[in-house]
Amino acid sequence: MFESLSDRLQDTLGKLARKGQLTEKDVDEAMKEVRRALLEADVNFRVVKDFVAKVRERAIGQDVLKSLSPYQTVIGIVNEELIAVLGAEREPLRAPDRPPQVIMLVGLQGSGKTTHAAKLAAHLRKEGRNPILVAGDVYRPAAVNQLQTLGKQINIPVFDEGIQANPVDIAAHGLQHARERGFNPVIIDTAGRLQVDERMMQELVNVKAKIAPTEILLVADAMTGQEAVGVAEEFHRQLGVTGLILTKMDGDARGGAALSIRAVTGVPIKFIGTGEKIDALEAFYPDRLATRILGMGDVQTLMERAKEQTSEAEAERVSKRMMKGSFDLGDFLDQLQKIKKMGPIGDLLGMIPGMGNQLRQVKDQISDDATKSIEAIIQSMTPYERRHPDMISSSRRRRIARGSGCTTAEVNQLLSQFKEMRKMMGQMGNMAKKGRMPKGFPPLR
Amino acid sequence: MVFRRLFRRQAEPDVQLEKSLEKTRRGVFSEITRLFDRSAIDEELYEDLEMLLLQADVGVDVSEQLVGELRARVERDRIADPAIAREALREAMVELLELATRNRKLKVLQRGVPFVVMVVGVNGVGKTTTIAKLAAYHQGFGRSVMLAAGDTFRAAAIDQLKVWGDRLNVPVIAHEQGADPGAVVFDAMQAAHNRGIDVLIVDTAGRLHNKFNLMEELGKIRRIMQRHVEDAPQEVLLVIDATTGQNGLIQAQKFAEQVDITDIMIAKLDGTAKGGIAFSVAKELGTPISYVGVGERAVDLSEFKPETYVDSLFFGEGDGL
């Protein structure tokens, strides 16, 4: 599919670097790649144009031409500029002049408003707040039921007046209800609508006028194409949007829409939705999205997912065993199963910086099925065999092969690979003791 | 008795599609038409054309390809008149979309054997609405339809389907939220069989394409269907949101890897959706695009026809339809 920007720049600039002096034309070649990658990430073409011009100017000004590592220099500039556009700082939700804080969610159909109303409520309650949800979508079949069901799931009250009432009244009554009972914040779900639907947009304007919300958050699908800008501009023009929730960021979405919307409207991105589950809402970090657009991997997310699966003490224990070279097949199986819980292996590898290129070459070899036979082989071993892989004789190997439904050759292969791996771990352990990492490993931060 | 019913072709111009594409046309594509209202073909024309195609979500590769082909054609045929060049572009675009129809298979409906349609796609692309439209579409041919509420994950997805079922007077087989979708499908298959239903449309949970386990569940549903009807689901329809950018392509590809997609529907083609993703989908995947969804009413579904698609985007007066 799409090659990541970092891989492309590495290809283009890597080749050029070897030939010595770079020319302005070479930089232009690189800029072509930047342009293409951004377009493929669904960044709006106007935004791309401005962005590329800015990067080019800086690249030439910063002596990329004389740089010994033009790739790093250009990637650095692109990364910095991306972060600059995305907003260097995290912007929290606005505080109201007087409580309650009223948050209204708006957006196109299917962008994820109802789900994110509930996610946001659950998120804010975790911060010690006392939220209430208001069901303002009277048009989509069962939208009110959906919010009620979600409210029940997370045990947060939902204010609704059925589907006959007028959304402006529902919002006003919901707010009043919240004031009387001390709920804060008030999160208002609205029906999805097209930004060109004048009558429906007017309705939102009326709701806004009636309840004067603290925040109007535009809920936008990260997979939206070029039109993202048109949608955001129009919602912003009519309503004065104060923030953005970017949803469905758990797909392969590069999130180019975020860059476009931010660049054109200046509206800050406040949250990103990363899954169907209620807790799949994260505060937005510009640098993470920048690396994602660049395709440079996403170490932070990888670390977070790893943390979910294993405690620090556990990680400490395992890494000690690795360093000592006493890591056995039982540990290996355990780690393998934890990794599998983190998601498909292809996805995980994609998050590792620099894996992009290699990944494409081995992609077919690394499948989740492959791990299945490894698991089966180890599970067919006795605890003694798992601890002492060196002691596995050929008759034991035959038994293991039969037990796991694999061939003896496969068992042999696994054992020899494991031996190699353990040897490497031992070497790393020794070097770590001497205070240096083997060549080629990135410095630990 | 076994007999064949083909999907009939509509003879009259597709007014509905025309109307819904109007906004798109007023945007990017009318600009494309206007682009050729000039006295000579120059470099600027190609540059602007590429930009407009990009803006319509046609994608970098396909945009470059279309512009490249046009350039070659203009040189080869010594075309000097921009109007002729425009026609050449139109032809190239139709040809590209025809890649998405040439693999279309004849659908065979057998009396007494439910024709099972499994509808898949990521969250929020309009699966449920699409199901309602499909139901109305099949009803239009006099077929009896049943719906299965296989999305047991999303809150109130079942209710939403039931509302449509009531409106269209179509039975809906449903369990509770959180139930096993496989069990729902099992019951639905049985019910469809017993009641002699012609078309069973199965909703599935909207799942993002990189969620491995969820995708596996689709495989399971399929196996359950096949216990009843050997070649079920006869149609696996992937719904793609017309506003999706190049991600739509990745989506489709990932889905195609997991479940054998037989048909694609481009939904939400109303409003300002550019629908350019159809070109990338046509070029990169062999899967036929069969339907386009427009509007929010149940009747707003059209069969996908490359000429209409391109012409609606280009002209709008119904010429060439």
Overview of the molecule:
The complex is a heterodimer of chains A (about 450) and B (about 325). Chain A has about 450 residues and is an alpha/beta fold. Chain A has helices at about 5-20, 25-40, 45-60, 70-85, 115-125, 145-155, 165-180, 200-210, 230-240, 255-265, 285-295, 300-310, 310-325, 330-340, 345-350, 355-360, 370-380, 385, 395-405, 410-435; strands at about 100-105, 130-135, 160, 185-190, 215-220, 245, 270-275, 280-285. Chain A has three domains: about 5-85, SRP54, nucleotide-binding domain (Four Helix Bundle (Hemerythrin (Met), subunit A), Up-down Bundle), CATH 1.20.120; about 100-300, Rossmann fold (3-Layer(aba) Sandwich); about 320-435, Signal recognition particle, SRP54 subunit, M-domain (434 Repressor (Amino-terminal Domain), Orthogonal Bundle), CATH 1.10.260.30. In chain A, strands 3-2-4-1-5-6-7-8 form an eight-stranded mixed sheet, sandwiched between helices. The longest helix of chain A is centred in the last third of the chain and has 27 residues, at about 410-435. Residues about 435-445 of chain A have low confidence and may be disordered. In chain B, helix 3 packs antiparallel against helix 4 and helix 5 runs antiparallel to helix 12 (about 305-315). The longest helix of chain B is centred in the N-terminal third of the chain and has 17 residues, at about 60-75. Chain B is elongated and about 65 Å long. At the A-B interface, helix 2, helix 6 and helix 9 of A face helix 3, helix 7 and helix 10 of B.
Distance between the termini of chain B: 37 Å
Instruction: List segments of chain B where confidence is low: pLDDT < 50 over at least 5 consecutive residues.
Output: 1-13, 316-321
Low-confidence stretches of chain A: 437-445
**Highest CATH level, the class of the largest domain in chain A:** Alpha Beta
| Shape assignment of chain B | elongated
Please state the structural category of chain B: alpha/beta
Our estimate of the beta-strand percent of chain B is: 5-15%
Largest sheet of chain B: 8 strands, mixed
The CATH superfamily of the largest domain in chain A appears as P-loop containing nucleotide triphosphate hydrolases
What is the CA-atom radius of gyration of chain B, in angstroms? Answer: 21 Å
Main sheet characteristics of chain A: 8 strands, mixed
CATH topology of the largest domain in chain A: Rossmann fold
Mean pLDDT of chain B equals: 82
> In which order are the strands of the major sheet of chain A placed?
3-2-4-1-5-6-7-8
Q: What is the gyration radius of chain A calculated from CA atoms?
A: 27 Å
